[in-house]
Amino acid sequence: MSLQSTQSGDGSRTAPPVTVLGVPFDLGADRHGVDMGPSAIRYGGLSAALDAAGVDYADAGDLAVPTLRTRADEATDESDAKHLDGVAEMTETLADRVDRALGEGTVPLVLGGDHSIAMGTMRGAARAGPLGVVWFDAHGDYNTPTSSPSGNVHGMPLAAAHGYGDFAEMPWATASNVVEENTVIVGARSLDRDEQAVLRDSDMSVFTMSDIDSRGIGPVVEEALDIATDGVDGVHVSLDLDWLDPEDAPGVGTPVPGGVTYREAHTAMERVADRDAAESALRSLDVVEVNPVLDTRNETGEKAASLAATALGKQIL
């Protein structure tokens, strides 16, 4: 299902309205503070940025999700993945809410929280039909409970969506309409050895930072969008703020040197918005891994807010 834009009286495009959903979730990560990400993004000027973009939006507040306090029974987890029951609960709750937002004719903008929340966003968005994915991230996020060196589920959401490995036995985690051939990782620069082997053998496409360095951000993102939209009518875009270089986005839990610049990130989101304007391609968007505890004067929260608005159509001119 694609959300169709309409034409205003002067012939210009009117984008579908947006539902903002906060997911203050940190059980998928190993550093506290990312649960405050939704607040940091809002405080960083999200409303003003969406207003400047001319986006018709409603902020539905934060979802009630499990926390470490409410999941004290998981101090000893039988799984190799930490807090997996809590992640499952969050995934089901968020998937239902994303599905509802789409049913109301809106584009869900989901504010994280750690990157495990994308499991819920993709699961909900995929209920509307085959879904392409563009994953802007320093990491591959293709570990499983068995292969993960850390056990942190924020390094597993793409594997979960595809039902890879251990996740084949976890129906709550999979999103059957997330198409492997239409899944693209952009800007990878830190992959675990097991991830490297799996990604090489998969039908996914991976563009590394070397590809961006040699070809430029614009052409790489255009090709990624071509792949993600081929044969499907909806795309989920996931923006992990650790995709940016730590000099530009210090407030993240797993920083990796050598990322894209803030300007390059804006160019990427502009290409997303351009493609959506041409094809009504964007079904859902999540912005994740902002950790204000690690940030400097909410610099990362402000940039996350601006980048989200750009993906939804904010223009310089």
From TrEMBL:
Q: Does the record carry Ligase as a key word? A: no
* GO MF term (any one): manganese ion binding
- Identify the enzyme class: hydrolase
Residues recorded as binding Mn(2+), renumbered to this chain, are: H115, D137, H139, D141, D240, D242
- Asked if the record carries the keyword Manganese, the reply is yes
The annotation note on the cofactor reads: Binds 2 manganese ions per subunit.
Classification via Pfam families: Arginase
Please provide the record's keywords in A-Z order.
Arginine metabolism, Hydrolase, Manganese, Metal-binding
Q: Catalysed reaction per UniProt?
A: L-arginine + H2O = urea + L-ornithine
Coiled-coil ranges from the UniProt annotation: none
GO CC entries: cytoplasm
Q: Which pathway, metabolic or otherwise, does it act in?
A: Nitrogen metabolism; urea cycle; L-ornithine and urea from L-arginine: step 1/1
Q: Where are the transmembrane segments?
A: none
Q: What is its EC number?
A: 3.5.3.1
Q: Name one GO biological process term.
A: arginine metabolic process
Its needed co-factors are: Mn(2+)
User: Which SUPFAM superfamilies does the entry mention?
Assistant: Arginase/deacetylase
In which domain of life is the source organism classified?
Archaea
Question: Which family is this protein grouped under?
Answer: Belongs to the arginase family.
| Name used for this protein in its record | Arginase
Natural source organism = Haloarcula salina
* Gene expressing this chain: rocF
